[in-house]
Specification:
The complex is a heterodimer of chains A (293) and B (355). Chain A is mainly alpha-helical and 293 residues long. Chain A contains 15 helices and no strands. Chain A is 78% helix and 0% strand. In chain B, helix 2 crosses helix 3. In chain B, 43% of the residues are buried. Classes of the chains: A mainly alpha (293), B alpha+beta (355).
């Protein structure tokens, strides 16, 4: 009786019918593929959840110590330094990486383009210590770029600019590749039309292509920032000081032991989670448009 | 007005080869050819979006080969309309004025009459994604016209529209051409559109310009077999001239003698083109014709296509006649029925092998 009613009503008018229908099907049909995928994916998520639960339970057992560590000027200063250096690196990436991403997106395939793409991806495939060493060799006081820049007062070794440049190096593929993907999704016809309407190349880019790629710019910037603030090995090679948060945790771990370093780590987790959540919320509706055209 | 002088251009594996054409002020110029022939690339080259590898582009007699598209005063409407999805209809249409420095409010006021003219005034604050294909088409056209271009380029503008919207849009285009005196260049692979709109046309096949000239001339007296085939001439026969009596020639086409008017010499190989509507069909007891070519045959197939029908007749050579469906019914034409075909010698277009 029920089945007959369902089969004649292909578009249930009310919620009750839809629920009834779902219950009818629930007992009969199991999509084992989806179930299997959920189990496998769940294991991966489970490891992260377990690790977070582990540190949370341990830290909440001694809240006084956690508060003391979190409120220390050393930790607050280090977090601000790390986030600030990451933001500076992203700003530089937006200035230099956006044009690069656009050129890569719009140029025709060629050996040269392939070579440039590979160079962009190098920081992704290198061990972080190697990346750090490359940055160090180039920007140290006697380095190809470090020497002339130190003469005009811009030092990188154990200095803030060193932290920024190391972060920039390791985070660049995340921004450039995301941005390139965004530009590739904007049909070149839109730029062509803009140009026939009187816009120069840069005006067409600024008024058409860039606004349509804003979501990718936000995503790329957030990804790159996350990668930058999480860097350790790449940064310590050139700038052990000032302490970014990763260096501070490592330093604390090797000098004060697990207790303090764990509290710093937990503080960073909370702050990072909060910041990334806010950023995602803020960018939720930015750069959205109806692309059914 | 705009001329291509031996323009060649390579884009990846595709190339335009030595293209020369002239588009005059007030022309409704059609660029036709099969898919992948290079029509859109040619259109984009006219707009200045591709720089030729060799050759010259001239606008009003001045060379503009290296002039960027924003300085050419040539509007472009793509087949996919290419509306800016993040802008409203009014912002799309006023875009060209804004990039020329006009303030947003002024630009919107300037384009308001244009929106009304194209029947999209009520859509001014809507985004393109919410519009129908016909509405998007009108917005794209209004946007291109808003900057008052000298030449308007249209890339297969009718291909994505339903038949009713197509008819309305054809009326819009005719109005733009006649009333506004706009020079229009339209890419198409539709012979019907060319018949309806074109004053001049070019046929491009595999990146090479095969024919160019007055539309009626290209459509009815093509220069080559490929062009004849593309412009839809139903009967294309290869043969050899066997007699020439002061310009009246007899051509042996597959064993059937066909008379035509040409200067071709005896022994010369030629291609004969006969339009299906120039082939008159009579049932055996019907009236006699004065046409020089009269051939008896048997109907092999009748293909009905909307209001017209193609009647294929085996008359020694296979010939196709185009009639109205009503005529087919009145004459009782059906496969197996013996008929007499007649074609005037002047209706046979002769393509000479060296032309």
């Amino acid at each position: 009786m029920k089945t007959e009613a369902l089969s004649t009503d292909s578009f249930p008018a009310d919620g009750e019918s839809a629920v009834t229908r779902w219950r009818e099907h629930r007992g009969r049909y199991v999509d084992w593929c989806t179930v299997g995928f959920c189990i496998l994916g769940g294991l991966l998520v489970g490891i992260t959840v377990l690790a977070l639960a582990n540190i949370t339970m341990t830290e909440l057992a001694d809240p006084a110590h956690l508060l003391k560590v979190a409120a220390s000027s050393e930790v607050i200063g280090s977090i601000l330094l790390t986030f600030g250096a990451g933001a500076n690196a992203v700003l530089l990436l937006i200035i230099f990486g956006t044009p690069l991403a656009y050129i890569l997106a719009r140029s025709r395939p060629s050996r040269f383009k392939g070579a440039v793409e590979s160079i962009v991806d190098i920081p992704l495939i290198l061990p972080h210590t190697v990346a750090g060493l490359l940055v160090y060799l180039l920007f140290m006081r006697r380095g190809w770029l470090g020497a002339p820049l130190s003469e005009i007062g811009l030092a990188f070794e154990d200095a803030y600019p060193g932290t920024v440049i190391a972060m920039l190096f390791v985070a660049s593929p995340f921004y450039v590749n995301t941005m390139r993907e965004g530009f590739e999704k904007v049909p070149v016809h839109l730029e062509n039309v803009a140009r026939t309407l009187g816009a120069g190349t840069f005006t067409a880019f600024r008024t058409v292509t860039l606004p349509l790629s804003l979501r990718h710019m936000y995503s790329g910037a957030i990804l790159a920032w996350g990668r930058a603030i999480g860097e350790f090995a790449g940064v310590i090679m050139i700038a052990y000081y000032p302490f970014i948060i990763s260096t501070l945790i490592y330093y604390s771990f090797t000098t004060d032991g697990i207790h303090t370093s764990r509290s710093i780590a937990f503080t960073v987790i909370l702050v990072s989670f909060g910041v990334f959540y806010l950023l995602r919320r803020m960018t939720r509706y930015l750069g959205r448009y109806d692309d059914r055209v | 007005m705009i001329a291509f002088d031996r323009v060649s251009l390579a884009l990846g594996s595709f190339s335009l080869n030595d293209v020369s054409l002239t588009i005059n002020r007030g022309d409704y110029y059609f660029i036709v050819g099969p898919s992948g022939a290079g029509k859109t690339v040619l259109l984009e080259a006219i707009a200045g979006l591709h720089r030729p590898d060799s050759g010259r582009v001239l606008l009003r007699g001045e060379e503009i080969t290296a002039l960027p598209p924003e300085q050419r005063g040539i509007g472009l409407v793509y087949q996919d309309y290419s509306l800016f999805p993040n802008m409203t209809v009014a912002d799309n249409v006023s875009y060209g004025l804004r990039v020329r420095g006009m303030r947003k409010k002024e630009a919107r006021a300037e384009v308001a009459p244009l929106l009304d003219r194209f029947g999209i005034g009520h859509l001014a604050d809507r985004y393109p994604g919410t519009l129908s294909g016909g509405e998007q088409q009108r917005v794209a056209l209004a946007r291109a016209v808003a900057v008052k271009p000298d030449i308007l380029l249209l890339d297969e503008p009718l291909s994505a529209l339903d038949p009713v919207t197509q008819e309305k849009f054809i009326a819009d285009l005719k109005r733009l051409h006649r009333e506004d005196g706009l020079t229009i260049v339209q890419v198409s692979h539709s012979r019907r559109e060319a018949h309806l709109l074109a004053t001049r046309m070019a046929v491009i096949i595999d990146g090479t310009l095969m024919d160019e000239g007055e539309a009626e001339v290209v459509l009815n007296t093509p220069r080559s077999r490929e062009v004849a085939s593309f412009v839809g001439i139903e009967n294309i026969l290869d043969g050899m001239v066997t007699a020439n009596d002061g310009g009246h020639v007899t051509v042996d086409a597959g064993g059937r003698a066909i008379e035509a008017v040409t200067d071709a010499a005896v022994g010369e190989e030629v291609t004969l083109c006969i339009r299906g509507d120039d082939v008159v069909v009579a049932v055996e007891d019907g009236p006699q014709s004065s046409a020089r070519n009269t051939m008896a045959g048997t109907i092999v197939q009748v293909v009905e296509n909307g209001p017209i029908a193609e009647v294929r007749v085996d008359a020694g050579v296979m010939l196709t006649a185009v009639l109205t469906r009503r005529s087919v019914q009145d004459l009782g034409l059906a496969p197996g029925i013996p008929v007499t075909l007649s074609v005037k010698a002047t209706a046979v277009h002769v393509i000479r092998s060296f032309s």
